[in-house]
Specification:
Oligomer: single chain
Structural class: mainly alpha
Radius of gyration: 15 Å
Strand content: 5-15%
Length: about 110
């Protein structure tokens, strides 16, 4: 892991798939920024999500989806066009550590590390 970031959910009520899609966009922005800072192109970029809905959205052309989804899918596909998207089981998703209410000690001893 090179870098990590988390963000609070918006105050406006959103569906879980929409929140997961926003997380995928945050991941892509962070990955793009990290890649640009590395000053070399990695051979492959792997992105992971525990949302099969989001993975299905990302795999299709944005025009297939409603505007909210289409705009975010377009950003994902444009900023990291060659990324390899994969599914990760929710319990194995290290990105969810921040949402599980772990203390700093629990986080440092987390089994995924």
């Amino acid at each position: 892991m090179i870098v990590a970031k988390t963000k609070l959910a918006p105050t406006k009520v959103q569906t879980v798939p929409r929140l997961e899609l926003c997380a995928a966009v945050l991941l892509v922005r962070l990955a793009r920024h990290s890649i640009d800072d590395l000053r070399f192109a990695p051979a492959k970029v792997y992105c992971w999500s525990d949302s099969k809905v989001v993975l299905d959205w990302i795999a299709c052309h944005p025009s297939r989806w409603p505007t909210f989804v289409a705009n975010r899918v377009n950003e994902v596909q444009t900023k990291l066009p060659d990324a390899h998207w994969n599914h990760v089981n929710t319990m194995d998703n290290s990105a969810d550590c921040a949402t599980r209410g772990l203390t700093p000690l629990e986080l440092s001893e987390y089994s995924l590390w």
